[in-house]
Structures are given as structure tokens and as C-alpha cells.
Amino acid sequence: MQLDVIPQLKHTKSDNFFLLAGPCAIEGEDMALRIAEQAVEITDKLEIPYIFKGSFKKANRSRIDSFTGIGDEKALKILRKVSETFKVPTVTDIHTEQDAAMAAEYVDVLQIPAFLVRQTDLVVAAAKTGKTVNLKKGQFMSPESMKHAVKKVTDSGNDQAWITDRGTMFGYQDMVVDFRGIPTMKQYAPVVLDVTHSLQQPNQSSGVTGGRPALIGTMARAGIAAGVDGLFMETHFDPANAKSDGANMLDLSLLEKLLGDLVALRKVVVGL
């Protein structure tokens, strides 16, 4: 797995899992810098390769009045400031082919949302930027089908693709992670487990997505035990008042203890 190609990514020789973490959406400069500062301090201490995550806009919303962003360019400039301030790479999700070229000017990894991972033009546009492409497995897709999404990236001349599992829809309002899919998808690309979105409870009658954040630690430990290469989690210092996905985010105050436990578990798994 080539992590060294990502600019400013530290601790790539530590044999740790890598981490994509940050708020669901960029709500403003101060909140982004506050979350990034604490995450960088923790991951440096634990020698975890860290990429700051923040969506510059949210296109998949339950209701028309849901928060979508503070403005594309404004949010992307904040992502760039995080990178420059803390010397870490950044990742954001894109929704259109036009987003790919625009976001690639500001961030180091482009993420394809789960609902859009079968959109060939979008995947190809992301690949052609030359950036690492993080492909979220559709909630409606089998692990085996993700090899085709990866092939779209590689056939576009880009060998830097990851797969992120965020669960499979079970009924209408719940997600289930089938850990049998982890070794299957690792045949195609490095695999990340999205531990917070896997605990979402979408399609609530209120129009606001629910979640089960008390199980974030359980999900993360299971992912490490199953051999994932990386973890994805959304975190915020005030999840209850976050403008997007607060119901399934990790409280930032819990991040250091959780990551410390996961690093210890990783050492056991690697040694088996």
C-alpha cells in the first residue's frame, strides 16, 4: 500500500492503520482548526498516519432545509488552511465531475460518496486529477462489485484507489457491516472502515438521520480485528449541535482514548 504518495502524510512507517477523521461538514474556520489541532496532536503522539476530513458541501440531504455548506470556495479554502497550518493532508467528498477538478486544487484525497460510486463519469473525473480516490462502497453493493469501481480508477491511469465500507442497508433504517467483505475487498485495493456512518440510522420519519454513537468503539475494534488498512470517523467537539450527522459522530473528547486502544489492538493483530 502506497501511502507515501500523499503529500505531508506522516508516520507512514509506523505499521499503524491510517485515519481519516474530522467533522462531517466544514461549518467554519474556527471549528475546523480546533478539531484538526486536537486530532493532529493525538495522532502524532500515537504515530497514526492522519488525513483531516471535512465535506466542503453536502449534497445528499434528507430535507431541502438541511445544512449543505457555507459556500464551496470558502469551505475549500478552510481545508487548505488546515493543511497548511498543521502540515497534514486533507480529504473531501465530491458530487459532480466539475467538483473533481475544483476540489483537487485544494485537497489531497477525493472521496466518492456511497450513493454515487457507480457514477462512471464522476469516478473517472476524480481519477484523472491524479489524486488518491477514496471509493465508498454503496449501501446497495456487494463487496465483490467494488472491484469494478476500482478498475474505473486504474483504467483511467490512476493506481491510487481505496475502498471504504460504510455498511449495507438492512431494511429501511439501519446499516450492517458484513466483515466477511473486508478480505474480499482487500484483493482489489486498501480497505477503510467508516465506523461512524456504519452506525447511521437513515430515513427517519423526522427527516433527520439518527445513529448509535455508543457503538463506535465496538465497530472500530471489530474493523481493526478484521484487518482493515484504515479507519474513517467523523468527530466534533459538540456533536449535539453539529450542522450535519451529529447523531452518529464521535465526541472529540473521546478520540484519544479510543485511538490508543485501537493502536494497542492493531499491534496484537499484526503480530498474529
Automatic annotation (TrEMBL):
- Tell me the GO BP annotations in alphabetical order: lipopolysaccharide biosynthetic process
The keyword Iron-sulfur appears for this protein: no
Q: What is this protein's record name?
A: 3-deoxy-8-phosphooctulonate synthase
- Phylogenetic lineage: Bacteria, Pseudomonadati, Bacteroidota, Flavobacteriia, Flavobacteriales
Its family remark reads: Belongs to the KdsA family.
Q: Which reaction does it catalyse?
A: D-arabinose 5-phosphate + phosphoenolpyruvate + H2O = 3-deoxy-alpha-D-manno-2-octulosonate-8-phosphate + phosphate
Q: Which domain of life is it from?
A: Bacteria
Q: Which residues form the DAHP synthetase I/KDSA domain?
A: 13-258
Keyword Cytoplasm part of the UniProt annotation: yes
